[in-house]
Specification:
This protein is of the alpha/beta class. The protein contains 13 helices and 11 strands. The strands form 3 sheets. It has a 7-stranded mixed sheet. The protein has a two-stranded parallel sheet with strand order 1-6. A two-stranded antiparallel ribbon has the order 4-5. The longest helix has 15 residues. It starts with a strand and ends with a helix.
C-alpha cells in the first residue's frame, strides 16, 4: 500500500544534465517514489528506481508560495519538475510546483505529468518530457497524447539498453510510438553502468520478462554491453531523424528570459552532444551555457552593439556560434 504524507517542498539545487539540456535544479512534488509502476528509469540519474512495498510518499504543498520560496535557492536557469503521481488529482503538488517555477519566469521541463498537473500557460515556457515505460511499444510513453492535446511541446526519453530497448526492432517501435504520439524529439539515454546501475538494469529486465533474466545477466555483466553504447545511440538518432524527430528535447523559454539567450544556450548544448566531441570541449560548452543562463542581460542587444565577443570569455569559435543564435532571435 502507498501512503501519501504532506511534506515541505523538496528541491534539489545544482547543475544537472537531462537529455543534453542543462538544469539549474529539480523540484520533486512526490519525492523519488512517484508513480504506480514497480520501477521507472530516472532520466537525470540515468538508473532504475524501484518502488518499495508499503512506502510512504512525501507530498509537497499545493500552495505556490512554499515552492516559490524554495526556488529562491536555485541558481538561474531551467528547472525540472517531476515526476508526477496518480494522486495529483487530489494533492495538486505537481501543478503548484510547476506554476511556481513558471511564475518566476523560469524555463520549465515537466517530467511525466498527470493531465491534472499540467499548468498554464503551455507555450513557450514549458516542455513536457515523457519517459519510457516497459510493456507494449505503442504505450511506451504514457501521458504524451494528453500533453500534446493540451498544447505542450513534448519530447520522449528512453534508456538505450542493448539486448532490450536497443535492439533494432525495439528502436523502430519506440520511434514510431514517439512520432505517432506527436512528440518533436526522441532522446536515447545511456544508462549508468556502475555496479548499482547494472544491477538495476538486470532487475528491471527480469521483472518484465523472467525468461530472459539469465541471458540478460550474462550480457550486462560479462559481455561487451557497455562498449556498444556510444556508437549505437547514434543509430537511434538516425532512425529518429528519418521520422522528423530531433535528438534533443526543445529548450523552453522562460517568460523573463530573453529569447536570444535561450536560443544561444540551446545551440551550445546541441554542439556538446555532437558525436566525437571531447570531454574538454563538452565542459567548455556547458560552462558557456551556464554563463548565458546566469548573465541576467539580454545578450542579443549586447551582440547588436558589437560587444558580445568582449564579454563572452569562452573563445572566438563559441562566441561566433552563440552570436549566430542571438542574431536569429533579435
Amino acid at each position: 500500500m502507498i501512503v501519501f504524507e504532506s511534506a515541505a517542498p523538496s528541491v534539489r539545487a545544482g547543475e544537472f544534465l537531462l537529455a543534453g539540456r542543462r538544469l539549474a535544479g529539480r523540484l520533486y512534488p512526490y519525492g523519488a517514489e512517484a508513480g504506480a509502476a514497480a520501477f521507472r528509469f530516472d532520466p537525470v540519474d540515468r538508473r532504475f528506481l524501484f518502488r518499495r512495498p508499503d512506502v510512504t510518499v512525501p507530498v509537497g504543498p499545493s500552495d505556490l508560495r512554499p515552492w516559490s520560496e524554495a526556488l529562491a535557492r536555485v541558481p538561474p536557469g531551467p528547472v525540472l519538475v517531476g515526476p508526477c503521481a496518480a494522486s495529483e488529482d487530489v494533492r495538486g503538488a505537481f501543478r503548484a510546483a510547476a506554476q511556481a517555477a513558471l511564475g518566476q519566469g523560469r524555463a520549465v521541463y515537466l517530467l511525466d505529468p498527470e493531465p491534472s498537473g499540467l499548468p498554464e500557460p503551455a507555450e513557450p515556457a514549458a516542455v513536457v518530457l515523457c519517459s519510457w515505460r516497459a510493456g507494449r511499444p505503442e504505450a511506451a510513453f504514457p501521458g504524451l497524447a494528453a500533453a500534446r492535446a493540451a498544447g505542450f511541446r513534448c519530447a520522449a526519453l528512453f534508456p538505450y539498453l542493448p539486448g532490450w530497448t536497443g535492439e533494432p526492432r525495439a528502436v523502430e517501435a519506440l520511434v514510431g510510438a514517439c512520432a505517432s504520439g506527436g512528440a518533436g524529439a526522441l532522446t536515447a539515454l545511456a544508462p549508468s553502468t556502475d555496479g548499482e546501475g547494472r544491477r538495476g538494469i538486470v532487475e528491471a529486465r527480469s521483472a518484465v520478462d523472467p525468461g530472459e533474466a539469465e541471458r540478460f545477466f550474462e550480457l550486462v555483466h560479462h559481455g561487451d554491453w557497455a562498449a556498444r553504447l556510444p556508437g549505437s545511440i547514434g543509430q537511434v538518432r538516425e532512425a529518429a531523424s528519418r521520422r522528423g524527430l530531433a535528438s534533443l528535447p526543445p529548450r523552453p523559454v522562460g517568460s523573463r528570459e530573453p529569447g536570444g539567450n535561450a536560443a544561444a544556450s540551446a545551440r551550445l548544448e546541441e554542439l556538446a552532444e555532437l558525436p566525437g566531441t571531447g570531454d574538454h570541449r563538452i565542459a567548455l560548452l556547458h560552462a558557456a551555457v551556464r554563463f548565458i543562463d546566469e548573465s541576467g542581460r539580454d545578450l542579443a542587444s549586447v551582440e547588436r552593439e558589437g560587444n558580445f565577443g568582449r564579454i563572452f570569455p569562452f573563445g572566438e569559435e563559441l562566441a561566433r556560434e552563440a552570436a549566430s543564435a542571438l542574431r536569429q532571435k533579435r
